[in-house]
Amino acid sequence: MNLEEITKLYDFTGKSVLLTGGAGVLTGEIACALFGCNANIAIIDRDPALADKVIKRIEPVGDRAIVVYGDVLQPETMEQALEQVIKVYGKVDYLVNGAGGNNPKATTTPTTTFFDLPQDALRFVSDLNLLGTIIPCQVVGKHMAGRKEGVILNISSMNAFRPLTRIPAY
After folding, report:
1. What CATH number has the domain bearing residue 18?
2. Which backbone phi and psi does 89 adopt, to 5 degrees?
3. Which of 156, 55, 148 is nearest to 99 (CA)?
4. What residues are labeled active site?
5. pTM for the whole structure
6. Residue 3 placed within a domain
7. Domain that holds residue 137
8. Is 145 helix (H, G, I), strand (E, B) or coil?
């Protein structure tokens, strides 16, 4: 199914979607699709410049797509991001957790074995993929629970089902 077919099937008019890691490839495409279905989009990312590129693709001029700084590992910045999104759209109906990934320092190489991987790099990858999902769920989920409605979509890696070689923390 292509984007045009999807946008004919679904109508998100009046719905607001907060996407973490929205500057990434997968979550950026999800943002584009949801925007095409008339959703209000709020891309939360640690790198607003990258997120701006996604916004420019979907809405060069307008008010249905915004970028807000947020670090999924810092509850305070996620709370501030949520407040900004609520100021603009009034509510958040959907949370798409797309932030995550690996760190090259947490990857084995021909010269860096599993036993040589630095703990700080492993911890960052573990935190990003676990806490980076839990923290936005807590922050945005509390808002949704207060409204008695909302949907949370957590995106995972194929690594969750079948571990990939060379990236043990991911």
Report:
1. 3.40.50.720
2. -105, -10
3. 156
4. 170
5. 0.91
6. no
7. 8-160
8. helix
